[in-house]
Structures are given as structure tokens and as C-alpha cells.
Design a protein that fits this description.
This protein is of the alpha+beta class and 108 residues long. It contains two helices and four strands; from the N terminus they run ααββββ.
Length: 108
């Protein structure tokens, strides 16, 4: 009798493990159609973006918020993002910038 109960529990667990992924599965064509890929308006090829960054430069000195004394440097760097079609080579560029804070503070 105990063997039948153990087998019943094993079957229920196995069924639950198989049933949950199947019911939660997403159709393959939906997953592919939701991918975010930019396509070329000229030939339909895939667009690829690469960014080239300039050196960091200081735009301001601000009071350090991490330590009692000193200043932090607010820095910026500019870049150019080039997006180009892998098929026909047609593309475009956009300007970008990044900022960061470099701590130069100290305690006593």
C-alpha cells in the first residue's frame, strides 16, 4: 500500500513538472517577432551601431559629498555613434555624451 502512495506522489510531481513549462511556453514565432533589430530602409539588411568616444574632460569642480574636504570633478566625454547597414553600407551618425563624477575629496 505504501509503495502505491509513493508512486502516486512521484507521478503527480512528474506531471506537474511537465505541465507547467508547456502551459507557460511562448510560441516560437512570437519570440522572434519581438526581437528589437533595426532594419535598413534601403535594402532591409541589419543595422549595426558602434560608438567611438573622445577623452574625458572636466566641466566643473563641485564640493565633495563623500568626504569632509576637497572637491570632486564633474567630467564629460563626447562620442559619435555610427549606425551602418551590413548589406548595402548605408548609414548615419549621432552625437552622444556621458558624464561622471571623480572623487578628489579627503578626510583630515
Amino acid at each position: 500500500m505504501k509503495v502505491k502512495q509513493i508512486l502516486a506522489v512521484i507521478l503527480v510531481v512528474a506531471f506537474a513538472m511537465l505541465a507547467i513549462p508547456v502551459s507557460a511556453a511562448e510560441p516560437a514565432d512570437t519570440a522572434i517577432s519581438e526581437r528589437r533589430v533595426e532594419l535598413c530602409g534601403n535594402c532591409g539588411g541589419r543595422m549595426v551601431t558602434s560608438t567611438t568616444w573622445e577623452s574625458w574632460y572636466t566641466v566643473a569642480q563641485i564640493k565633495c559629498t563623500h568626504h569632509n574636504y576637497g572637491t570632486d570633478l564633474r567630467q564629460q566625454r563626447d562620442g559619435t555613434a555610427t549606425t551602418k547597414c551590413q548589406g548595402c553600407g548605408q548609414g548615419y551618425t549621432t552625437s552622444k555624451s556621458q558624464t561622471r563624477i571623480v572623487c578628489h575629496g579627503y578626510d583630515s
